[in-house]
């Protein structure tokens, strides 16, 4: 039986399409007998095709999911987008949306991405950090670096995609989204959320 020789050009093309590693692409092409589309499917089925390569595509389908905490004091709405309605109806996609809504209720993030943290809040945190560092008597030369470190930590702790997932803190919400995106073979994007708590503005 003759097997089709897989050229480096074919491997490079599949890699450009999927973002998967060179060896994974070569193996997929061998399995698919050199058929580019079948090799792409092979990688997607195994969740190897990377989500980043799909991030540029438009994610305009999706779901809005709600979560109400058992005591009726906290409620969350979250919009999770996908590229196709087919994926939006997938159970794994729905589960991800529910998990994110539960996480938001518990972890109380400020925004989806670091860019969503309001500038005035960052300024307030910067002032607090500067006062703390001065009170601790840290050398002048390293104070700015310590303040930046504290700000970075604050943003990571309060940004949804940077927060460790409440049900599995070995991964962040961002990593969880990428994982599901890889399995589904489409870009998955947390568009926005709203969290309501009794007595809070």
- The CATH architecture term of the largest domain is 2-Layer Sandwich
Strand content: 15-25%
CATH homologous superfamily heading of the largest domain: Elongation factor Ts, dimerisation domain
Average of per-residue pLDDT values: 86
Low-confidence stretches: none
CA gyration radius, whole angstroms: 22 Å
CATH topology of the largest domain: Tetrahydropterin Synthase, Chain A
The rough form would be described as flat
Please give the alpha-carbon distance between the first and last residues: 71 Å
Task: Supply the helix-strand structural class.
Answer: alpha+beta
The count of DSSP E runs of length 2 or more, i.e. the number of strands, is 5
- The helix tally amounts to 8
Give a short account of the largest sheet. Answer: 3 strands, antiparallel
Helix content: 40-55%
Quaternary organisation of the protein chains: single chain
How are the strands of the largest sheet arranged? 1-2-5
